[in-house]
Amino acid sequence: MSKKWLPFLLSIAILLIPAQTAFAAPRANVTNNQVVFDFPNTATFSATINADSDIALITLEYGNIQQTCGEVVAKAYPDFTPGKTVNVEWTWDMRQSGSLPPGATIWWRWIYTDATGKESSTDVQTAAWLDDVHDWQTISSGDLRLHWYDNDKTFAQTMLDAGVEGLRRNKEQAGLTTEDPIDLYVYPNYDDMKDAILYEPSWTGGMAFPEYNIFIMGVSQSDSTWDQNTVIHELTHILVGHLTFSCLGDVPTWLNEGLAMYSEGELDSGAQAQLDQAISSDTLLTVRSLNGGFSELPDKANLSYSQSYSIVNFLIKTYGQDKLTELLTALRDAKTIDDALLEIYGFDSDGLEDAWRGSVGAAPRAVSAQATAMPTPTFVPTYVPVAGIPLAVTPTPYAIPTSSSDGSNLPLDDNTPSLIILTIALVCVCIVFLLIIGVVVLTFVIRSQKAGKNG
Questions:
Q1: Cα–Cα dist 103/129, whole Å
Q2: Closest CA to 358 of 300, 314, 305
Q3: DSSP 59
Q4: Is 204 helix (H, G, I), strand (E, B) or coil?
Q5: Does 11 or 272 have the greater pLDDT score?
Q6: pLDDT of res. 295
Q7: 31 and 123 in contact (C-beta within 8 Å)?
Q8: Which H or E run contains 190?
Q9: How many CA atoms lie within 13 A of 156 on its CB side?
């Protein structure tokens, strides 16, 4: 579950700058160099720049520290009045670009060129993208850092212990580890968490940002076990996302969510009962349908999670964690899920479903002769507990086209009426042309006959 921001098309140029030349300009004479946050909406950069000659051009380079496919530098060109001393300011509006996760590190530097053509730059500055309204506290253990407010230290230690346990389980059960510190921001309620990030579903209870090694969550205030399991669940998404990071590969939702559920422990009695009922009534979901986003219908969403857990449990218990790690690595290397499964296990998604169904005593998979709609992969966060029933994202299906021998079932596009009219017109012109030729030929024949008689 990752989020990416896009800079403004009109006021910002995105440039890929080699690391060895990015900061080669001489040191600038800059004071009051700072950034002020209106969290979570804007970050305003400002500075006072001094030069020996009039300043002709000022550029702000900025960005955020995250795992990316290449070094990306955003540039902004603020308005200013030329002079030897210039006060400059520019605002990064997250409401237009999309917001960063709380705790993300923002960096920036100023570059200016004076009237003589001399270019100078400041040192790179950094700041944590986080509100200053709350009294944040931090507690850590190994590679995990937990940040919280409006709760006591006992609560924080309980949540941190859950995270440490999550790291242990993921290492032992699935071979997932981290090489970098992971930050968890715990909000005392779901409303505070929702206010900290823009444009997210109102029912979101937790979110993971693997490219930042950050995850955030709200506290249910009524179910400590749920809260601790949420820590483990989101932490697993961080580890999976970090291992499988790729600009080309993709991890199917059943595998990502199944691993997160598996790391929490065995299914609770209600989820297991629902899964058993689906097995006995032959109402299981297909593995391929679980590649993308889960249903918004509560019962089907719950079944999607439980079934994903069961599939991952089957893979690990039957073939071992090493093969599962190989599967994740193959997906990172841009293999499709079918190709990766074939390479590691010897079966594709359908073969996996057949083997898994056999292991749980389910009826054989129904084989359809018709192509089916496949859901578009969608972001699936961790949900707010509502009477034990989560909500989910609606998958957006798209139709797989099928061939037609006679073309009679092909849909009409917007140009079809014009094409029909043009065709009719051409046919009419041809008919008229043939009629004219016929009249000319007939006239010639009649005149020839008359000439023969007269002769």
A1: 5
A2: 314
A3: E
A4: strand
A5: 272
A6: 79
A7: no
A8: helix 190-195
A9: 20
- Gap between the Cα atoms of 363 and 279, Å rounded: 8
Tell me which amino acid residue 34 is: Q
**Is 144 within 8 Å of 163 (Cβ atoms)?**
yes
What values do phi and psi take at 407, rounded to 5?
75, 5
Give residue 373's pLDDT. 45
Residues 6+ apart with CB under 8 A from 435: none
Q: What is the pTM of this model?
A: 0.72
- What does the DSSP assignment read for 111-142? EEEETTS-EEEPPPEEEE---SSS--EEEEET
Measured between its terminal Cα atoms, the distance across the chain in Å is 99
Helix (H, G, I), strand (E, B) or coil at 403: coil
C-alpha to C-alpha distances, 156 to 209, 238, 379, 427, 449, nearest whole angstrom: 21, 20, 28, 82, 114
Domains, the chain, in order of start with CATH, read: 12-128 (2.60.40.10), 137-398 (3.40.30.160)
**Per-residue pLDDT at 114:** 92
CB 226 within 8 Å of CB 48: no
- d(CA 234, CA 187) in angstroms, rounded, equals 14
- Percent pLDDT > 70 in the chain is 75
Q: Is beta strand 396-398 parallel, antiparallel or unpaired with respect to 374-376?
A: antiparallel
Most confident of 170-179, 364-373, 412-421: 170-179
pLDDT at 415 over 50: no
Q: Which of 337, 315, 341 is nearest to 173 (CA)?
A: 315
pLDDT score recorded for residue 106: 96
Residue with tokens 């601790």: 228
pLDDT band for 429, please (50, 70, 90 cuts): low
Q: Which helix (H) or strand (E) holds 428?
A: helix 416-454
Distance between CA atoms of residues 406 and 54, nearest Å: 74
- Amino acid identity of residue 192, one-letter, is D
- Closest C-alpha among 338, 167, 318, 125 to residue 252: 338
* One-letter amino acid of 232: I
Residue with more model confidence, 209 or 402? 209
